[in-house]
């Protein structure tokens, strides 16, 4: 089966790009599956052509082999482009006529008004939509990422399903056993640590960390120690850390970082051994956030960090994950944080409830007082953080594992094409 995914810009460091690339990397390993990505634009400002690693088995091509200059159109030129864009993109996409399925993942770029015979068209909706467009019915299937959006729109189209994002690697399931095996063979590690691991080796392999507090703490410590050995600087994890992750976008402000900074400034002085790190690519908002931090006298408590592809280190060196978004569909960072055993505090924006099952605290949207209370509760209570962390790794395994989610995708492909894998 040949499947083509679309991306607005394969070099963009965003959540939807990571979701699509993860899916492509997983599908290309399945026998008789050929996977391709067509990027509508490239990005010459980026050093690397791809934001995230892409399996060599995945073919990558470009609809326009230059930066997105169309977004800078103004006046009549902008109006004309918005009107003809779907037709132009549709015609150019019809060059890819040898694919069984084409999966659109851009917000509003491609609609299959002119279809290639025998090709099926799927649209993944990575964002929250406020109005149903009739053009969506041109697709053979619409895929939402969360239950709330599915329930809201399931009667609007002919074939609407929910398939959430998946976690490519479960740290406690996939990485820990390999680390344990490696550690047991080494002679140059601390003798006390070696003895401790040896005494818990069998129980950790039997996944005691899901229910046993000591097992969870030890498993997490082993993963941290293993990762630090692979870092250029072995900075000790001296301070407790809250993290928030996302693009610092001045135009849309989807991630709500200003309200996060304001809320944390209310409690930061009570917790001098804690710090908040906001990690992400700057898209015009960083300077505004820096000014807000200075105005609130929070420069010793709140830090802005650039995007990093090594999110593993970020999660392993954090204690709490915080989300202040105004709107989300199914954020990868939320389920990834859960998979690393991080308790989560977030505003309840309706569409992220699938990511919660006793693994964090959901707070009424815009209730800053309740948000601060939730943060304080977890910062003060290590036992609660551990219990929620254990619930998080269970949720990640039971709901968002690669095997579980890939099975849903394969069933969808087969139902549309009647081609068995």
Automatic annotation (TrEMBL):
Keywords, in A-Z order: Transferase
InterPro entries in the cross-refs: Glyco_trans_1 (IPR001296)
Residue stretches making up the Glycosyl transferase family domain: 234-394
Single GO molecular function: glycosyltransferase activity
Alphabetized Pfam families for the sequence: Glycos_transf_1
PANTHER family: GLYCOSYLTRANSFERASE
Protein name: Glycosyltransferase family 4 protein
């Amino acid at each position: 089966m040949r499947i083509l995914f679309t991306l607005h810009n394969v070099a963009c460091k965003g959540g939807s790009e990571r979701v699509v690339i993860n899916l492509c990397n997983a599908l290309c390993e399945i026998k008789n599956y050929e996977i391709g990505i067509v990027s509508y634009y490239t990005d010459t400002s980026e050093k690397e052509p791809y934001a995230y690693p892409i399996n060599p088995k995945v073919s990558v091509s470009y609809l326009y082999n230059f930066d997105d200059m169309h977004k800078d159109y103004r006046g009549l030129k902008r109006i004309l482009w918005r009107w003809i864009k779907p037709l132009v993109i549709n015609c150019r996409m019809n060059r890819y006529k040898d694919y069984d399925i084409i999966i659109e993942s851009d917000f509003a770029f491609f609609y299959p008004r002119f279809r290639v015979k025998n090709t099926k068209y799927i649209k993944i909706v990575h964002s929250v939509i406020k109005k149903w467009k009739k053009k969506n019915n041109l697709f053979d299937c619409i895929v939402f990422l969360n239950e709330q959006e599915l329930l809201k729109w399931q009667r609007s189209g002919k074939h609407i399903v929910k398939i959430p994002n998946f976690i490519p690697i479960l740290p406690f399931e996939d990485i820990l056993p390999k680390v344990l095996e490696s550690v047991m063979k080494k002679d140059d590690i601390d003798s006390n640590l070696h003895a401790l691991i040896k005494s818990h080796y069998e129980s950790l392999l039997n996944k005691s960390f899901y229910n046993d507090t000591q097992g969870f703490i030890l498993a997490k410590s082993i993963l941290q120690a293993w990762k630090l050995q692979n870092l250029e600087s072995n900075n000790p994890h001296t301070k407790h850390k809250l993290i928030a992750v996302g693009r610092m976008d001045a135009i849309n402000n989807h991630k709500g970082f200003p309200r996060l900074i304001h809320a944390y400034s209310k409690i930061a002085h009570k917790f001098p051994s804690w710090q908040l790190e906001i990690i992400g690519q700057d898209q015009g908002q960083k300077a505004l956030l820096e000014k807000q931090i200075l105005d609130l006298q929070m420069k010793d408590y709140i830090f802005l960090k650039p995007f990093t592809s090594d999110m593993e280190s970020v999660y392993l060196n954090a204690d709490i994950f915080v989300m202040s978004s105004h709107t989300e569909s199914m954020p990868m960072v939320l389920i990834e944080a859960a998979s690393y055993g991080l308790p989560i505090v977030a505003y309840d924006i309706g569409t992220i409830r699938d990511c919660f099952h006793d693994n964090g605290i959901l707070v009424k949207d815009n209730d800053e007082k309740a948000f601060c209370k939730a943060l304080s509760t977890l910062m003060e209570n290590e036992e609660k953080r551990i219990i929620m962390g254990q619930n998080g790794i269970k949720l990640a395994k039971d709901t968002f594992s690669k095997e579980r989610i890939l099975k849903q995708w394969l069933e969808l492909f087969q139902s549309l094409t009647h081609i068995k894998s």
